[in-house]
Amino acid sequence: VSLNAYSFNTELSNYVNSERSGDRMTIFDLIDFCSIHNIPAVDLTGYYFVGYPSVPKDEYIYEIKKYAHLSGVEVSGTGIRNNFANPDASARAKDVQHVKDWIDVASKLGAPVIRVFAGAIPAGYKEENRSEPLGWIIECCKECVAYGAKRGVIVGLQNHGDMLRNADETIEIVKAVNSPWFGVIVDTGNFMVEDPYVDIEKIMPYAVNFQVKESPFGNENPIRIDLARFMRIINQSGYKGYLPIETLPIRNRVYDPHTLVPAFLKEVKDAIEAEYN
């Protein structure tokens, strides 16, 4: 298992945005949390590096890398914000450069994979014209993936409920890009389908990392993930990589990641134990 930093989004954002009120947390604090709770790895999302979206100085990257290593915590991935479905070609080019810049960061950090998005559904989008934004996404991904291959970093495309609503739409792009350095960050909570477990199973051959959510039916849904069924899918697929968990605020629940993350972590570890032993 691993932990996605977004679970502590509020505290980490408060720190990088220099908020004076509310709880604050640094990347180093997050690594300490992982070490204390025996979480062997962490996905360090780019948003929580001081100065994002600007590329951090090498000294800062290497300090984080060293601290994680000495804390017994691996960096299982990172991720950034981008929109490859933007109708503005210059904006897309800027985002491609942003991804390349952070591929360099990932390489220096020792992160094997970087998460990218397909992008938000463009204004005035019509389903019959899907091929146009799809072409933009594929073109951008190809350029990023070629760069990632040179730097030894896998590019992972997250199904984020945006232009990518299900397994088939996500796989279509992976097949079009057609590179061993490109795959899917499987977001278990963002398949916009009746039975998300079917789509999780379908997408497994392309998985390069995960965001394991508490519910497979969206961020606000209280229905819990069937971890026994999920782990059976993982086991049968032959996937051996990390399973980063991500907890999120749910309506009518006090959100405290300091208690919710360890609780969900225990559920996931118990499910792994039950499936693999």
TrEMBL record:
Xylose isomerase-like TIM barrel domain spans which residues? 46-248
What sections of the sequence does the record tag as coiled-coil?
Answer: none
Gene3D superfamilies associated with the record? Divalent-metal-dependent TIM barrel enzymes
Among Pfam families, the record links this protein to: AP_endonuc_2 (PF01261)
Annotated InterPro entries? IolE/XylAMocC-like (IPR050312), Xyl_isomerase-like_sf (IPR036237), Xyl_isomerase-like_TIM-brl (IPR013022)
The record's listing under PANTHER family reads:
BLR5974 PROTEIN (PTHR12110:SF53), HYDROXYPYRUVATE ISOMERASE (PTHR12110)
Name used for this protein in its record: Xylose isomerase-like TIM barrel domain-containing protein
Q: Name the source organism.
A: termite gut metagenome
